[in-house]
Specification:
- The chain has one helix and six strands, in the order H-E-E-E-E-E-E.
- The protein is mainly beta and 81 residues long.
- A six-stranded antiparallel β-barrel has the order 1-2-3-6-5-4.
- The chain is globular, with a radius of gyration of 11 Å.
- 15% of the residues are buried.
C-alpha cells in the first residue's frame, strides 16, 4: 500500500482540498474519490481548473501534481503525475 493510501485510508470519501497554481491556492474543491493514479473532485466552476496544477489535500497538506483529464457538470477528473 502506498503512502498516499495509508495516509488517506479509503478510496471513496469526501475531503477538502484546493487547486494550487504557481504557489497560489485559491480554488477550493471537495474531493470525492482518490486512488493511486488520480482523483475526482467537485468545484464551483470547473472551467477555472487549469490543465496542470497541484492538488493540496487537507488537512494533511499532501501535494499531488495533477493533469486534468475530464470535466463534467461540477466535477473534474485528474491523474497524478
Amino acid at each position: 500500500m502506498s503512502t498516499l493510501n495509508m495516509t488517506l485510508a479509503g478510496s471513496r470519501f469526501r475531503r477538502r482540498g484546493r487547486v494550487e497554481v504557481d504557489g497560489l491556492a485559491d480554488l477550493p474543491v471537495s474531493i470525492l474519490a482518490i486512488s493511486e493514479v488520480g482523483a475526482r473532485f467537485s468545484v464551483a466552476d470547473p472551467a477555472q481548473v487549469p490543465g496542470a496544477f497541484t492538488l493540496v489535500i487537507e488537512p494533511q497538506q499532501i501535494r499531488m501534481a495533477c493533469q486534468t483529464l475530464w470535466r463534467s457538470g461540477d466535477e473534474v477528473g485528474v491523474r497524478f503525475e
